[in-house]
Amino acid sequence: MAALTDTGMKRSHNEDSIASEASCGLVLVADGMGGYRGGEIASALAANTIVYEVQHALQQLEQNPAAMEEDEEYSSQSIIMRDAICKANQVIYQASHSLAQYQGMGTTVVAVLFLADHRLSIAHVGDSRLYRYRDDYLETITSDHTLIQQLIDRGFYTPEEARASMNKNLVTRALGVDADVKVDIQEDFAQPGDIYLLCSDGLNDMIDDKDIHLTIRTYNDNLDRAAAELIKLANANGGKDNVSVLLARIVDETHAPNKHWLDKFVDWFF
Fold this sequence. Notes:
Strand order of the largest sheet: 1-10-9-6-7
Radius of gyration: 18 Å
Low-confidence stretches: none
CATH topology: Phosphatase 2c, domain 1
Distance between the termini: 6 Å
Order of helices and strands: EEEHHEEEEHHEEHHHEH
Strand content: 15-25%
Number of helices: 8
Structural class: alpha+beta
Oligomer: single chain
C-alpha cells in the first residue's frame, strides 16, 4: 500500500485526511471543507470516528453474529461501514453547531473495507473517488455526489464538457452539513493484481482519467512511486486543491491459503 497527501500549490493548509487500519482491513480518504481550519477538523473527525466505529462493530459481529442487523442486499460489513459513516456525520454536525468557528464545516469520504476471499465493502459520500485498475483498464467505481454528475446522468453534459464547468465541485452530499446523510454502499470482488485508488478531488480535477491510467500502468510495480507521480502531476497542472491518494494492490494469496484473513490483509498491502 502507498498513501500520500499534499497541500497543493494554492492552499495554505491541508484539509484532507487519510487513514488505514490493518487490524480490520479499512482504508479511507476524506476531503474537508469549511473556514478557520474547519475542513481539517471535519476530515480528521470523520477518519477517527469511522475507524473506531468499524473496529468496534466488527469485534461485536465476531462475538455475536446473530445480533447484527440483517439485510437482503448487503453484507453485515457493508452495513457496518454505512453506520460508521452516519455516526461520523452526527459527530461533525454536532461539533459544527457547538463551536461558532467551525459552523458549516463538512467533509467528503470514500472508504473501503477489505474482507476475506478478496471481497470489498465500499462506502462513500461526496466526490472523493474509488478507482480500480484491472487488466490495464481503469474504472471509476464510485459516482460523485455533485451537481455536475447529476447533470451528466441526465444528459445535459458530457464528461468532457463537465471538466470545464465552473460548477463541477458543487457537492450535493457531505458529512456534517445536515443531521442525517445518505451513504452509498456497494460491494466488489477483487482479483490478484488489481490496484485500488482512493483519492480526493484534488487529483481528478487536475489530472484526467487517461493520465491517472498511464501513471498507474507505468509504475504499477512501485506504488510509492505511482503515488508520488500522481501528486506531482496534480501540482504540475495547477495544484488548485489539496490532493490525497491511497493505492492498494491485491496479491495472489494461493501460496498461503490457510492464513488468517488479517495476515492476508497485511500481505496484500504492507
